[in-house]
Design brief:
Two copies of one chain form a homodimer.
Chain A (H helix, E strand, L loop, with lengths): L6 E4 L2 E5 L10 E4 L2 H9 L6 H17 L6 H16 L6 H14 L7 H30 L8 E4 L14 H10 L5 E5 L6 H12 L4 E4 L4 H7 L4 E4 L3 E3 L4 E4 L2 H11 L3 E4 L5 E2 L16 H4 E2 L2 E2 L12 E4 L6 E4 L2 E3 L3 H9 L7
Parallel strand pairs in A: 4-5, 4-7, 5-6, 7-10, 8-11, 10-15
Antiparallel strand pairs in A: 1-2, 2-3, 8-9, 9-14, 12-13, 15-16
Helix pairs in contact in A: 1-2, 1-3, 2-3, 2-4, 2-5, 3-4, 4-5, 5-6, 8-9
Chain lengths: 352, 352
C-alpha cells in the first residue's frame, strides 16, 4: 500500500525488504532456511515488533517445508527446535514469541494427522498472522482518528510504518489514517539514534505517502514542544505489560517525559499482539543490549575514539503513568490500564 | 593540561585545534586574518562558549595587528568593523559578544594615544580573557567539589572540556576536578547529536585523562537514570539569563526534564562570562538554527532520503526551575537565581 512490499511469502520463499540499506538502496533478500531468518531478525534486515512477528511465523513455515520428517511427532519436535532458534533472535518484542506460539499451538492440534497437514496448517497460521496485522493497523488508525485534531503537529519516534509491520503501520498508521481522512497533519520525526530509523525509514515512508514531515534530532523534542508546539506524540511499542508499562525503542521514555512536562498527550499504538498480559509491569521486560558499534560507527565511519566504552540499550520502558492512552485494534485503553487492557484483551478472538 | 593546546597565540598568529576532524585527526589551523577567524567560528573549527569568546578576542587582536591605520580614530573604527564581522559568526553563546565588548572597551580608553598603544592593549585584553578562562574553570571545579559524591555516576551533555574552553573545561572541568581529588567518578556522555561532540570530543578528552566514561545515545539518559542510576547531571551553557534560564546545546532541556523526573540534581557550570544579566529570561536568547546537512549527513554519508526537511536547532533553553544550581568561578548560585546570580555578579572584577 505504501508502494513497497516489506514482507512477502511466495511458494515457500520468504522475501524481506532489507531495511539496513534504506533509503539509499532498495534491496530484497530471499529466505528458504529458518536459521537464516533468525539471523536476519537479529541483524535487523527487518525490524519492528509486528514485522518481526510475521517474519518469525514464516520462519516456522520454512522449518515445516524443509522437513525430512515422515511422521507428525518428528515434525513437531523439529518445529519446537526451530521455535527455539527463532526465539533467540531478539528478546524484547513480544510479537516474536507470540507469533511462534500461535504457530506451535496450531501445529499441535491432534486433528492434524499427517506431515503435510501440519505443514499446511503452519503456513495457514503464518498467513493468518500476516493478514490480521494489516487489518489491526487499519483498525488502530480508525480508532485513533478522534484523538488527532485537524492541523495536528504530531511527534513520532523510530519507525512504525509499513516497514515495521506487514503493511500500513501502527503509530505511523495513525498519522497516515488522519492524513488520508483529510486532516492537515504534520509529522515531526525523531531521527532515533543509534540506528536512525526515523531519519532513514520513517522519512522514506512519509515522503512516498506525501505526508508533510520534518526530521529532528532526538534531543530536540522538548525544545520543539516549548517553541513550535506539539499537539500529540504517538509511538509504537515492542511489549506492553499488563499495567500499561511500555517497552519501545530507546529514547521513547525521554520523549514521554518531555510530553508529560508540556501536557502533550502521549499515545502508544499497540496491536494486541504486542500486549503481554503475563507480565505485571515493565520491570520484567527484558531489554536488549546491542553491539556498541551501532553507536561508535555509522557504516564504516568511526565516530568515537578507539575502544570507547558504550552502553547501547536498544529499548527503554515508559511507565504507564506517562501514557495518555494505548490504541489497539479492538479499541482504546485509558488509565487505569490494568483494568482497561484486561477488558480489551478479553475481546480478542481467538483468546490469547 | 589535557595534553593538547586548543587555542594558542604566538607572535601575531592564532592557532586553533580543528575540532571538526577529531578524534580521527589532530590538525591545527593558523589564522592571521579576523575574517577567517569569524568563518572558523561559524564552521565550528572551534566551538564551546568560552573557547569562542577567547577566539573572538584574538580575532580582534588580529584586526588590530593587520591595521594600515596611522591614527587611533581610524583604528578604533576598524576595530568596530571587525567586531561586527565577528559578532555575526554565531548568535547564541554570549561569550562571543562579551569578549568582543571587553576588547572594544579596552581599546576605547582615551589614555591610549597611539596606534601601537591600542594594538598592545587589545592583545593584552585578549591574553587576559585567555588567562582568566583557565582560572575560572579551575575555580568552578573547586567550588563544585562539594556537590560531587565519591563514586558518583555523572551524566554530561555535549563537550565542555579543554576543547570547549581555553583549557581545563567547565562541566567536564567539574568532573575532572572530582577525579583529580580522588573521587571515583564515572562519566556517562550523551553523544550529542547532531555534531556528536560528546562521542567525538568528550570521549577523546576523558580517554586522555584516564577518567572512566561510557558513551550513550541522547535518548538513553532517562533509561539510564531509571535503571543504572545517575547521581548528578552537569552541563555547560552558552548563555544564562538573569533569572537562571539557560541556553545550551540542543538536548540539554530533555536531559534536564529526565533529571527532574528522577530527582537527579541538575547543575550548570557557567563562568560569569556566560551570564547575560541584560536578558530577563531565556525567551530572549536567540537560538541558532544550523545547516540541515548536520542532521541529514554524517561526513559524506547521506542518512535521510533526498530533500528531507529538517529542523536543526543548535541550542535549547532549560527553564531555571529545572536547574538545581549554577556553578560559577565566584561561587555557586541556588534558586531563586534572580537574587543569587545578581549577588554573584556583583562580586566579579572588573564589574560587567
Amino acid at each position: 500500500m505504501g508502494g513497497f512490499t516489506n514482507i512477502a511469502w511466495n511458494k515457500g520463499v520468504l522475501r524481506l525488504l532489507d531495511q539496513r540499506v534504506l533509503p539509499q538502496e532498495t534491496r530484497y533478500l530471499d529466505f528458504t532456511d529458518y536459521h537464516e531468518v533468525a539471523q536476519a531478525i537479529r541483524e535487523m534486515v527487518t525490524r519492528g515488533a509486528p514485522a518481526i512477528g510475521a517474519t518469525a511465523a514464516y520462519g516456522m513455515a520454512l522449518a515445516a517445508l524443509c522437513t525430512q520428517a515422515t511422521d507428525p511427532t518428528t515434525l513437531r519436535i523439529e518445529l519446537n527446535q526451530a521455535a527455539e532458534v527463532l526465539r533467540q533472535s531478539r528478546p524484547t518484542a513480544v510479537n516474536l514469541f507470540w507469533a511462534i506460539e500461535r504457530v506451535l499451538r496450531r501445529a499441535a492440534n491432534p486433528a492434524l494427522a499427517t506431515v503435510s497437514a501440519i505443514c499446511e496448517a503452519v503456513i495457514a497460521e503464518a498467513n493468518a498472522i500476516y493478514e490480521e496485522d494489516i487489518k489491526a493497523n487499519k483498525a488502530m488508525g480508525f480508532h485513533a482518528l478522534a484523538l488527532v485534531p485537524d492541523q495536528a503537529k504530531i511527534l513520532h519516534h523510530c519507525n512504525t510504518g509499513g516497514l515495521a509491520t506487514v503493511d500500513y503501520g501502527t503509530a505511523l498508521g495513525v498519522i497516515r489514517t488522519a492524513h488520508e481522512a483529510g486532516k492537515q497533519v504534520h509529522a515531526y520525526l525523531d531521527e532515533t539514534r543509534p540506528r536512525l530509523q526515523g531519519a532513514r525509514l520513517s522519512a522514506w515512508e512519509l515522503k512516498r505517502l506525501n505526508i508533510p514531515h520534518t526530521v529532528i534530532v532526538d534531543g530536540a523534542s522538548g525544545h520543539l514542544m516549548r517553541t513550535v508546539g506539539i499537539d500529540l506524540c504517538v509511538v509504537g511499542c515492542d511489549r506492553v505489560a499488563a499495567n500499561g508499562d511500555t517497552a519501545n525503542k530507546i529514547g521513547t521514555y525521554n520523549l514521554a517525559l518531555a510530553a508529560h512536562a508540556h501536557g502533550v498527550p502521549f499515545y502508544v499504538a499497540a496491536p494486541t499482539s504486542t500486549i503481554d498480559m503475563s507480565l505485571p509491569s515493565g520491570d520484567a521486560i527484558p531489554i536488549e543490549v546491542r553491539d556498541p558499534r551501532e553507536v561508535t560507527h555509522l557504516g564504516n565511519f568511526q565516530i568515537t575514539p578507539d575502544d570507547t566504552p558504550v552502553a547501547n540499550f536498544a529499548f527503554d520502558v515508559t511507565p504507564a503513568k506517562y501514557i495518555t492512552a494505548i490504541i489497539t485494534e479492538v479499541g482504546i485503553a485509558y488509565p487505569p490500564f490494568s483494568d482497561s487492557l484486561a477488558e480489551l484483551m478479553a475481546r480478542v478472538q481467538p483468546p490469547r
